[in-house]
Amino acid sequence: MQKQQEQCQIFAVLIFTFIFLLAAVSTTEAGKKEKIEKKMKKSDCGEWQWSVCVPTSGDCGLGTREGTRSGIDCKQTMKTQRCKIPCNWKKQFGAECKYQFQAWGECDLNTALKTRTGNLKRALHNADCQKTVTISKPCGKLIKPKPQEPKKKKKEGKKQEKPLE
C-alpha cells in the first residue's frame, strides 16, 4: 500500500512538472510570436534618407543633417543627426565622399603644381559622389640649379707667420 502511495506521489510530481514545462514553452512561443509581429511592423518602414551635412557656423566643423523615411506604421519618420565636415582640402568633394588617393605626382615646372588622383572608396548617407577626382597643390620651393662659378684657388706657399709675443 505504501509503495502505491509513493508511486502516486511520483506520478503527481511528474504530471505537475510536465504541466509547468508546457506553460513555460507556450509563454516563450507567445514572446517569439510578439517579436515576429513587431519585426513585421518595422519592415513597413522605409530606409532612412539623409540630407547633406550642414555646418552650424562657417563652412566646416560640427553641423547637422536631416533624415526622413516613409511607412504607415513607423513611429519615427523624421530625425536630426549630428555630423562633422572636415576643415581641410577634402571638403571640396563633400564630407560624405571618401576617396583613396594615389601618391603625389612629379612637380610640373610650367605650372609649379603637383597632382594626384583619388578613387571613390565609399559614399556615406546616399551622397552623390564623383567616381574619380583629381587635386593639385603647389610644389613648394622649387630649387633651381644655380650656375656654378669656378672655385677660387688659395694662394699657396706664402704663409704669414704671426710674431711671437
TrEMBL record:
A single Gene Ontology MF term assigned here is: protein kinase binding
As given in the record, the signal peptide range reads 1-30
The Pleiotrophin/Midkine C-terminal domain sits at 94-158
Give start and end of each Pleiotrophin/Midkine N-terminal domain.
32-93
Q: Where in the cell is it found?
A: Secreted
Q: What does this protein do?
A: Secreted growth factor that mediates its signal through cell-surface proteoglycan and non-proteoglycan receptors. Regulates many processes like cell proliferation, cell survival, cell growth, cell differentiation and cell migration.
- This one is known as Pleiotrophin
Q: Which organism does this record belong to?
A: Pseudonaja textilis (Eastern brown snake)
What gene is this protein translated from?
PTN
